[in-house]
Amino acid sequence: MIRFYFHPTPNPAKIALFLEEAGVPYETVAVDTSKGEQHAPAFRAINPNGKVPAIVDTDGPGGRQARVFDSTAILIYLAEKTAKFLGTPEDRPELLSWLLFLGTGLGPFSGQAVHFQFAAPEGQEYATNRYRREAERHYQVLNDHLEGRDWIIGDSYTIADMSAWGWLDRASRVRKGAEDPLAAFPNLKRLFEAVDARPAASRAREVGKDHAFKKVNDEETKRALFPSNYPPAA
């Protein structure tokens, strides 16, 4: 059984999509990051970095319990465990390259673009422009790669496409004010729509809907989400 630690944000969404696609039995454990539950000692024992997603596989390698954190690591772990959505052995170098491009580039720059456009104090124009333009540059790199391709890797749907879907779903926030945020990247838009049309994507969107996550952006939320902005008192 997979215990899936979840909050309705882009990186956990990737894992929800995989679990639904692969038909892996799992239970969802809500982690309300706006309340700071990701900093609780019990969760830090699973992910020392205090972020979602994370999983605990009660039937890990050798029958032992295993913890896995970071969305890219989880996608690779689950794909290898189930032997699904990995492409062919010949695809492996490309798969790893694009997964890390998404996990260390498109995702983080998208997240920072959202932060500086929606959460940071006013007067951060340099940072706002820097992160938004870098997110858009990553969009363009992937858009160019997808020319003439249906999927990111080889000829089949893989965990790379799932990884891209998680953050492309938030393109309207990454490209704040754009009427059609993926219109300038037609190949990327086509990929997103192909993944989003899959029945598993609809099911993934329902994960966690039975939990009342906090939605108020008050001081508690800011301290929970951005603890490095609030250093401990001397």
UniProtKB/TrEMBL annotation:
The lineage of its organism: Bacteria, Pseudomonadati, Pseudomonadota, Alphaproteobacteria, Hyphomicrobiales. Transmembrane segments: none annotated. Pfam families: GST_C_2, GST_N_2. InterPro entries: Glutathione-S-Trfase_C-like, Glutathione-S-Trfase_C_sf, Glutathione_S-Trfase, Glutathione_S-Trfase_N, Thioredoxin-like_sf. PANTHER family: DISULFIDE-BOND OXIDOREDUCTASE YFCG, GLUTATHIONE S-TRANSFERASE-RELATED. This is Glutathione S-transferase domain. Keywords: Transferase. It comes from the Bacteria. Residues 1-86 form the GST N-terminal domain. GO terms for molecular function: transferase activity. The keyword Metal-binding does not apply. Residues 88-216 form the GST C-terminal domain. Gene3D superfamilies: 1.20.1050.10, Glutaredoxin.
